[in-house]
Amino acid sequence: MAVSFLGRTEVSDLCLGKPRLRSLSESATVAEALAALKNSDDSFISVWNKEGGVCVGKVCMVDVVCFLCKEENLMSPFSALKEPLSHVLSKVPGLVMHLEPSSSLLEAIDLILQGAQNLVVPILPTKRSSISRRKQHLQKSSTIGREFCWLTQEDVIRFLLGSIGLFTPLPALSIDTLGIITSDVLAIDYYSPASSALGAISKSLTQQTSVAIVDNDGTFIGEISPFNLAYCDETIAAAIATISAGDLMAYIDCGGPPEDLVGLVKARLKEMNLDKMLQEFTILSPFSSDTLVSSSSSSDEEESPIRTSGRHKRSYSYSTRMVRKAEAVVCHPKSSLVAVMIQAIAHRVNYLWVIEDDCSLVGIVTFSSILKVFREHLETI
Known about the structure:
By secondary structure, the chain is of the alpha/beta class. The chain is 39% helix and 14% strand.
């Protein structure tokens, strides 16, 4: 029954009510991508080829921040923002794939298991006859002029959770029993410089996971999550360049950066002679007396290609769009599959850290590994 159900379910059924994609051309600059992200409620902006017919990737604030954290860009952030968007886009192939609305959910799951994070699906008109719908399903026309939406791993997991009874007894089994806990995790010591985690942060974004913060005994303390970093603004690059991994956790917490850490970042930027980054950070810092930027700004300020962004302009490195506390979401090896799915959906994350009772880190369980279990289960039915 489950195989038949998923085979009959079309991708369009999961896309009902989804908003259309915000998009940029691959010829845009980093500054234009930054402005688009600040003026969007979505964490990611789709990037299309110059002809506008194919989505070639996606960009989020974490991509921009990792780019700004490069040594040469820390020295001159304003110049870095003028670089083409191609310098920021992930070079990992297949993260974004096109899929027709008539494709089955099984086809979507297979693409995700091959590495796709986001599926680009055309939005069908809400009012249509069965004949026009059939024509649209058969039509092999250009994508130009059509509107699209994202289909994500979370969408698929949410849909499977709504039909979880079809997969009995799989949902009641523990993640340990199912063998979906990955012990090969991205981790960094609490006292290590946050900058040493840049490679891991970039990789975690590609894997849709996170970077664990651990102590010398391997005890799990917290995480540096790209999902939380995506709700900061570009000046978080200054914090990453100057403070420890442990302090960065506090810096990106939903309460906003503590005043003492803001002061520490400023002092270390001075010590490192990062004058341009210090100026950018000071302008946007929430605790500085000179946070407000007047229209008669300095020539250095005018150099920045993103200094003004209308009513959506942020004046600090913490975004009011952050709605969940920057705490890691954890589970136990004996947690059931369905419990883990519910917990991940409730916290809007694509993964859960797996820890023992003593807080020692066992590994991580991801949406991708969960989908793999469902797919393998279907093959045994």
